Amino acid sequence: MHSPTLVILAGILAALVTTVFYAVWYFNKGIPGLRLWTLSFFCASVFCASLLMRDHVPEVLLVMLTQASIAMVAYFCFLGSRAYMGRASVPHGYAASAIAAVMAAAAYFTVVQPQMGIRFALAGSVSGVCFLLTAHTLARGGFRNVPARYLFAIVASLHGLFLLLRPLLFKLAAPDAGNGADAGMVALLSQFVVLEATLSLVLMAFGALMLTNEYITRELRHLAEVDPLTDVFNRRAFLTLLEKAISSADRTQSGLSVLAIDLDHFKKVNDTWGHKGGDDVLRHFVGLATSCLRNEDVMGRMGGEEFAIFLPNASSEGTRAIAERLRAMVASQPVATDRGPIGLTVSIGATQYLPGDSSDALLQRADEAMYLAKEHGRNRVEALALSRPS
Ligand SMILES: Nc1nc2c(ncn2[C@@H]2O[C@H](COP(=O)(O)OP(=O)(O)OP(=O)(O)O)[C@@H](O)[C@H]2O)c(=O)[nH]1
C-alpha cells in the first residue's frame, strides 16, 4: 500500500484512540496511568499529522517535531505504565533534557551535517528504550494478578526491539540505497515500518483499555466487599469467605476458630469524643487487630462496633492465645488524639468449628461467648466449645 495512505490511516486510528481514551479518562480521572496513556496516543496523532505536513513545513522544523513527538509517545507510555503499577514517577528534568538533546541532534543532522540514517537511528533508539522500559515495568509486578499486562508488555517489548533494530534492518536489506533495486526495498521496508507502528498502536491501545477495565472491575469488587471506614471485609464478604473456610475445614479435617469482638462502651466513646473520635477508635482497633493476625486469618466488620475474625488451622490453645493477645493489646494501647488518649477495651467470644456447624451457627456461638464476656465484666475473653471433641 502507498506509504502516505498508511500514514493517514495510522493518524486516523491514533486520533480515534486518543478521543476514546480522553473520554474514558474524563469520566474516570482516578484510574492511574490513563491520563498519561491518553497523552501518549495524542503524541502519536501529532506524529502522524506532522508526517503528512511534510511538504508544507520547513524540513528542520518537521524533523524536530517528529523526533520530539515520537520520543514523547514512548515516554508517556512508560510513565503511564509506572503510574498504573503504582510506581513513583521519574524526574521529568531528565526526560526534558533527553528530548531537547534529541531535537538538537535532529536539527544538527538536518542542517549542519544532513544524515537521515543517524536521525532515524536516534528516534528509534530513544523510543525503543522507553518501550522496553514500559514492558519491564509492566512485567515486574508479576503477571498472575493482572493477566492483561501480558498483552501490553509483549507488544511494548516487541515494538521496542523493532525500533532498536530498525536501522540495522534497513542496512541489511538495502546496503546501497542509491541503486534502483535497493531503493525499492527501502520503500517496501518503510511501508512495513508504518504497518508495524500502526499494529503496535492498536494492540497497545487494546492492552491499555484492558488494564483500565481490570482496574475498574477491581475497584467495584473492592467497594462491594470492603467496609469503607476500616478497610476490612464487610459482613456479606466475610460470611462468603467463612462458608468457604468451613468447606475447606470439612474437606481437610483441619481446625477453624472464630472470634466475635465487640468494643466496650463504644456509645460513651462517641458521646465523649464525637463521631469522628469514634471512627478513629474503630480504625485504631482494626490496625491493632490486623497486626496480631496471620496472613490466612480473615477479619470482617459485622456492623457498628462489632467485628469477627476467623482463624483457619488454629488450635484451641492458639485461638485463646490470639484472643488474649488482642484483648491485652487493645487495653494497653489507647488511641492518641490531640485532646488526649482515648482508652478502649474489647470483649471477645471465641469458639471453634464443630462438624455440621453452619456459618450462622458458628458465628452465633462466638456471639454468645462474647455476650458472656460482656456479662462477666467486659475487657475479657470467653470461650464456648473451644476444644475439639476427640
Ligand atoms: N463513630 C461511629 N460510631 C458507630 C458506628 N457504628 C455504630 N456506632 C455507634 O456504636 C455505638 C454502639 O453502642 P451500643 O450498642 O449501645 O454498645 P456499647 O456502648 O458499645 O456498649 P456495650 O457493647 O454493651 O459495651 C452506638 O452509639 C452507635 O452509634 C460508626 O461507624 N462510627
Automatic annotation (TrEMBL):
EC number: 2.7.7.65
Recorded GO MF terms: diguanylate cyclase activity
SMART domains given in the database record: GGDEF
Membrane-spanning residues: 6-27, 34-54, 60-81, 93-111, 117-138, 150-169, 189-211
Enzyme class: transferase
Catalytic activity: 2 GTP = 3',3'-c-di-GMP + 2 diphosphate
Entry-linked Pfam families: GGDEF (PF00990)
Ranges of residues in domain GGDEF: 254-386
Keyword list, A-Z: Membrane, Transmembrane, Transmembrane helix
Protein's UniProt keywords contain Chloroplast: no
Keyword Membrane: yes
InterPro entries: Diguanylate_Cyclase, GGDEF_dom, Nucleotide_cyclase, Rev_trsase/Diguanyl_cyclase
PANTHER family found in the cross-reference section: DIGUANYLATE CYCLASE DGCM-RELATED, REGULATORY COMPONENTS OF SENSORY TRANSDUCTION SYSTEM
Database matches in NCBIfam families: GGDEF
Protein name: diguanylate cyclase
